[in-house]
Design goal:
This protein is of the alpha+beta class. The chain is built from 24 helices and 11 strands. Helix 2 (about 80-100) runs antiparallel to helix 3 (about 105-125) and helix 4 packs across helix 5.
Length: about 625
């Protein structure tokens, strides 16, 4: 009798939307069990048992974290004494450096950061993940500590094959030998959350099976419980401390951690990114085999490759490293700009290159999302920096959640002015993403500012990708690599084109020269004049609004208005010739699309003027009255 493999989710095909991949309703939710609670416990059947210690990746619950720590059991709790010992050693060494300083102030800071990293490694998986989490949150830690924590490596010895076998049996309902034709007992990779084994399905597919470490939820809940207790006890020891912030940070970390150990969610993430990058032939995302996937077991297509930072090996294969770096950054920006969903952990360990030069993405536990409103606010921030408009920059940073609601404008403005002063004079092609991130991190240390987690991951990911691309090609330019994605984003929505035009038409000739890419300054000056000429015509259209209202009361203005419309109509006829000319000049070919967008916008404005005269008249009248009041 054939063994039945229990699938926890429905199988997804490429035709299905990524979000439509639900777990079976039979999967039981994790019920927080608190002392005195009358909640019904899940069934005890081994194949369907989902408890705090074995569920592996259900939603984080702060109540369950609190209930996992009992004050009366502290004396006998080994985990408590392990954490207390590590904390005592760290504090004693820091105190010794203070009373008998042997090093400079900067060296003392560095030594403290190194000791903290070593202490987190000693405390195990939860605290290694905490260090990695905090390394992204530069608004919460001194920069030297955050930099040191970013060096944390998530590598630990593998756990025994017997535990691997029992986890697979629990999630899939059969042993590895029954599920797969072959299953390698030696893992090819091992980390704090799980390890990866090679296997072969009965249909011949080569796969990798990611198996979660046992009892992770129990360990995580206990450690998170102690973190929450620290915040509550800290108020008694130091009332003026920001313990509420630490409590909120602990819960934020808990949610992130439990999302990462939910392998069903990770599979959904992989499918969604695969869907997003379906038109990128140079990027590969492994297929998820849902029939062989559960909460703690994830089966993926086996895609071998060379690690992307192994430059020597890639060069020996004759691959185009410059193209690989550009495609990597371009695909990442398309994830962010076009879809608002991106891989938030793109380090070299999660990226490989196959023999055809295609980039393979691994590990989908950490993902980031940027809303449409946030993307618009980011565009507004860029425009504000170009225009050196502090007020507009603060408005957009507030929309992003970076400026705290109770922050006073004065201190925020003083914190941002040096940033504006420096970057408003920079040429785009000379910008370095890692330097920008460092400067933003410096600004984020201001008490009036904070960095939302999704934006922190966005910055960290961008810096990591730029570093990888520079490893592949030292003279890599982030701006040049970003052009295809930016062009696609601009052309995808009229609102994006309008935003771009707004930015261009509010900058001076000198800034246009600095922003115009290319080595030919004379060409750049010609381009600046063309944009300035387009701006002048756009201004005529703006003036036309005020004229329409006068048509109702002054017949004389009608003739003038007609001349304007004829003039602009002739402009629309001549403009395609200009575009064609630019398209045939290699030096200016890339700008033809932008002039075409401007042409479309002006045409739309003129048509709107013609079909909506009453509305335009009212707007012009109100505009005239407001101008009169200002005078």
């Amino acid at each position: 009798m054939a063994t039945e493999i229990r699938a926890h989710v429905t199988i997804m095909t490429d035709s299905n939307p990524p979000e439509l991949n639900p777990e079976l309703e039979a999967a039981l939710p994790l019920v927080p069990l608190v002392e005195g609670s009358s909640a019904v416990k899940p069934p005890s059947d081994a194949k369907n048992k989902f408890t705090a210690s074995t569920s592996g990746g259900l939603q984080y619950d702060a109540v369950l974290a609190d209930s996992s720590v009992r004050v009366r059991n502290l004396v006998t709790d080994r985990r408590f004494w392990q954490m207390a010992k590590t904390l005592a050693n760290f504090s004693f060494e820091a105190f010794s450096d203070r009373i008998k300083p042997k090093f400079s102030k900067s060296e003392l800071k560095r030594r403290r950061a190194v000791r903290l990293r070593e202490a987190l490694v000693e405390l195990g998986p939860t605290f290694v993940k905490l260090g990695q989490f905090l390394s992204v949150r530069r608004d919460c830690l001194p920069i030297e500590i955050a930099d040191e924590l970013s060096l944390l490596q998530d590598k630990v010895p593998p756990f025994p094959i017997d535990l691997v076998r029992s986890t697979i049996e629990s999630d899939l309902g059969a042993s590895p030998e029954q599920v797969f034709v072959s299953f390698d007992p030696q893992p090819i990779a091992s980390a704090s959350i799980g390890q990866v084994h090679r296997a072969t399905l009965k249909d011949g597919h080569s796969v990798v099976v990611k198996v979660q470490r046992p009892d992770l939820s129990q360990l995580f809940y206990k450690d998170l419980g102690y973190m929450r207790r620290l915040a509550k006890w800290g108020v008694l020891i130091r009332p003026q401390g920001q313990w509420d912030s630490w409590l909120a940070l602990s819960d934020e970390f808990g949610r992130t951690l439990f999302q990462e150990i939910n392998y069903i969610q990770e599979g959904r993430n992989a499918d969604r990114i695969r869907h997003v990058l379906r038109n990128h032939e140079s990027m590969i995302v492994p297929r998820v085999f849902w029939k062989f996937t559960g909460r703690r077991v994830l089966t993926l297509e086996y895609l071998p490759g060379t690690k992307i930072d192994k430059v020597g090996e890639l060069e020996q294969k004759g691959l185009n490293l410059s193209k690989i770096g550009n495609e990597l950054v371009n695909s990442y920006l398309e994830q962010v700009l076009m879809h608002g969903f991106f891989h938030a952990d793109p380090h070299a360990g999660n990226l490989s290159v196959n023999d055809e030069g295609k980039v393979i993405i691994y590990d989908f536990g950490m993902m980031g999302e940027i809303s449409e409103a946030q993307r618009e606010a980011i565009t507004g921030c860029i425009a504000a920096v170009i225009k050196r408009d502090t007020v507009d920059l603060i408005k957009n940073l507030t929309a992003l959640g970076i400026v705290k609601p109770d922050a006073k404008p004065g201190p925020v403005k003083r914190a941002l002015e040096p940033f504006l002063e420096y970057y408003s004079g920079k040429e785009l092609r000379d910008l370095d993403f890692s330097v920008i991130e460092h400067d933003i991190d410096q600004i984020a240390t201001d008490k009036a500012l904070t960095m939302p987690p999704n934006l922190a991951y966005l910055l960290r990911s961008g810096t990591t990708l730029e570093g990888i691309a520079r490893t592949l090609r030292p003279n890599f330019s982030f701006v040049e690599a970003a052009k295809p994605a930016l062009k696609k984003w601009i052309l995808s929505r009229p609102a994006n084109a309008a935003t771009l035009l707004k930015v261009i038409f509010n900058i001076s000739d000198d800034k246009l020269l600095k922003l115009a890419p290319g080595k030919n300054k004379n060409g750049a000056r010609v381009e600046a004049e063309e944009v300035k000429f387009a701006a002048a015509n756009l201004q005529e259209v703006s003036d036309l609004k005020a004229k329409v209202y006068l048509l109702e009361t002054q017949m004389k203005a009608q003739e003038h208005k007609t001349r304007q419309l004829i003039s602009l109509s002739l402009w629309l006829l001549v403009f395609p010739l200009i575009i064609a000319t630019f398209a045939n000049i290699p030096e200016y070919r890339s700008y033809a699309n932008y002039f075409l967008i401007g042409n479309g916008v002006m045409g739309a404005i003129i048509m709107w003027h013609l079909v909506a005269p009453d509305s335009l008249a009212r707007r012009s009248k109100n505009s005239g009255q407001s101008r009169g009041q200002r005078r």
